[in-house]
What does this fold into?
Amino acid sequence: MPRDNLNELTAFLAVAREESFTRAAAKLGVSQSALSHTVRALEERLGVRLLTRTTRSVSPTEAGERLARTVGPR
It folds into this structure.
């Protein structure tokens, strides 16, 4: 798997688990902006929205939940 793909999946899983770009960015040691761009790139590459974003919350969509179950830790 190309490194970019692995980075995108890692970023997505962190945001989905934390349900927060701020907390996920802090855990991964990257900026919120970089994390957001990385997750957006994954969504564009897959052609599906993985996260529902509002001004106060982030939560996985149904597709995001399926992906997290498939590639996340067991």
Q: What stands out?
A: The chain is about 65% helix and 10% strand.
